[in-house]
Each structure stands twice: as structure tokens, then as C-alpha cells.
Amino acid sequence: DTAALAGVVLAPGITLYDLAQGRPPEAAAPGTVRWGLLVDMNRCKAGCDACVSACDRENGLGGGKAVTDAQWIRKIDLKDARGLARSLPMMCQHCAHPPCVDVCPTGASFKRADGIVLVDRHTCIGCRYCMMACPYKARSLVHVPLTEQNPEVPRGQGCVESCTLCVHRVDKGQTPACVESCPEGAMLFGDLN
């Protein structure tokens, strides 16, 4: 059923050409694809947080709502000047030119050849420059020691983190958990090239 998404025209000039395909673990991320996630705001329903719950479960996040809790994806409600209300998920946009990467003094924030923006927890010093640079407020600092983590998603106290587009799934040819869980089919993942 996901094969039907290949070649779907999303808007004039934007087409998903390829779906995620697995690669050997030892292979580098390919520069031939540019992974992206698109949200159809007409299909995203207010009050639904299936994507948030799926992200929390997949990545071992607590799902708490305290100001210090990690939040890789959150739902926001928007209202335009005409009063038209929309709801959409907000997470790291994996920018073409990510400001978080530009300001990182240690190189912990980096962009893979396939467009996925990540944080190397071994080099992150927790300075939070990337958090200040992010126009989407999509990064969180881990404030507390972590236990019972998903071994495929290592996290650490004192490190900044954000949505990874479920890179551990993408590298196996799967889609991000949020996309898979959306009951309305509002989220589409694929190659934006």
C-alpha cells in the first residue's frame, strides 16, 4: 500500500519520486536522495496526537508535558486572518541550510548527505546555540539521566536532541513512526529530489 505513494504529486512542482529503501548498515547515507516529510494541513485533525504518541514510543521519550521534557514533535494550532483554523505537527524541518548546524561550535549538529539533520551526542556539549538558532523551536535539552532507552536511539543527559526522521528506521527502508501512525494519511515521507 505504501508503494502507491511513489510518484504522487503533492503540489505543483513537488513530487515524491522514491520511497525509503534500506541500505547496508556499513554504507554511508547516499547523496542521491533528499529525504523529506510533507504534511497535508487539510487532512491533519485538531485533537489528534497519534504522531506525537508514536514518536514518543519509538524513540523512548517520556511523553511528558513538563517544560524540561524532550519533545521531538508537538501539535500546534494555527488560525489565519480569516479565522480559518488548522492543526499540524511541528518538528525539526531538516532544513536545506540548517541554522543549527551553522552555529554548533563542536560540529555535533550535522546534516547527512541525504538531508537528515542529526546531533552526535558524543560531541554535543549542551551549549544550546542550536536551540536558539532553530526557527521552529524543534530542539530539546535532555535535563535528566535516562534509563530504558531504545538501543537504536541513543540519548544522553546534557545533550541537545530533536526529530531524527526516525533515521534508524529510514536506514532499514522503513518510514518514520509518525508517518506510519497517522490515521488520516496527512504525513508523507519520501525523496524530495
Textual characterization of the structure:
The protein has 193 residues and is of the alpha+beta class. The chain has 5 helices and 10 strands. The protein has helices spanning 50-59, 99-103, 129-133, 167-170, 177-181, and strands at residues 9-11, 14-15, 35-39, 73-79, 85-91, 109-111, 117-119, 139-141, 160-162, 187-191. Strands 1-2 form a two-stranded antiparallel sheet. Strands 3-10 form a two-stranded antiparallel sheet. The longest helix has 10 residues, at 50-59.
Helices and strands, with pairings:
Elements: E1 9-11, E2 14-15, E3 35-39, H1 50-59, E4 73-79, E5 85-91, H2 99-103, E6 109-111, E7 117-119, H3 129-133, E8 139-141, E9 160-162, H4 167-170, H5 177-181, E10 187-191
Antiparallel strand pairs: 1-2, 3-10, 4-5, 6-7, 8-9
Question: What is this entry, summarized?
Answer:
With 193 residues, the protein is α+β, with helices and mostly antiparallel strands. Helix content is 15%, strand content 21%. The strands form 5 sheets. Strands 1-2 form a two-stranded antiparallel sheet. A two-stranded antiparallel ribbon has the order 3-10.
